[in-house]
Amino acid sequence: MNKTLRYIIEYPVVVLFFGICAAMFAGYLICPDNEYSQMENRFLQQRPAVSAPSVADGSYMESFETYTNEQVPFRDILVRCKAAFVWATGSSENNGIARGQRGLLFDKTMAVSANAHKNIAAIGDFAAGAGRDVYIAVAPTSVWVNAEDLPVGMPVLDEAALADELGAALAGSKNAHIIDMYDILSENRSDNIYYRTDHHWTTRGAGYAYAAIAESMGLDRQDIGRYERHEVYDFLGTFYARYKGPFVLADTIEYYDVPVDELELSDRSEHDLIDTAGFGGFDKYGAFMYGNDGKCVVHADKGIGKNLYIFKDSYANCLIPYLVMNYDNITVIDLRYFGGSVSEEIAGDEDADILLVYNMSFINDDNHFYKLVSR
Fold it and tell me: Are 140 and 358 within 8 A, CB to CB?
């Protein structure tokens, strides 16, 4: 028998291992790098540039290791295989996402971060110095609202402690008004108010938030149901992008054709609030407000005589169509991408209402709230 053939027969695992290594190496040389993973809904590490400082401090090797992991050939297939293997072992968790009752996926954020205290202090300072009423609506996470569906013993972020800390930070400001979102969302938890596979609330959940906001801010609550309603199927959100386990039931997105005159984005203008073309991609929630922009302005011009500044994370994107029914113009600012001065911005319309809309996990993790009070 041929010596090579006998070796293959006697040591198949070794041959298979080196064969896979050779295929992977060839793939690195032949396949172009991917900039974005549609399946994971995130940007991937690109080949890092070599420099003396990065080699000296070890950051180059760290970046290169991430690069080789994220640009591995057949990555999508390997990610799915790994998730299926984890599921087959009986684990309810993969990549920090746990699967609970009713097919709900949950983020295992456990610890209060140092950013949370800084962010809460910045919100308090902003409210104290704004010179007018500031309304703060902090949304609970699905982990908190759907606590009964969590895997047994799963640790969670102490949102109640953070809410108390926020209340204490705002207690000394007569212009600060906290809008309670926890009660109304908890009371309606069974009404499909959070996606199963995504961290956002649904359009229906945003509707309950709108009801609480309208009551607190003295707005005449409007019925969005008078506009045409649409449904988009097969939505697998941010939690699924990390979990990737089998037998996950996709979500349905609903939206309404709320008319506007113009949506003024940073680089162009549109004439509606929904990027319907975005529903054809993986990040379907990004269709609301055309994703996250540093600053955009919604011109509705309804003759109401009221304008609004809203500082927000992506939770507000499906809430804004509700608020459009109460304002002529809404200036929307996402501090992550905003490069201007907040104080100068709000000074441009001293009669406009001010509303902050964030989810508690964002307050815990983000590091851009300092822009609220920076000059």
Answer: no
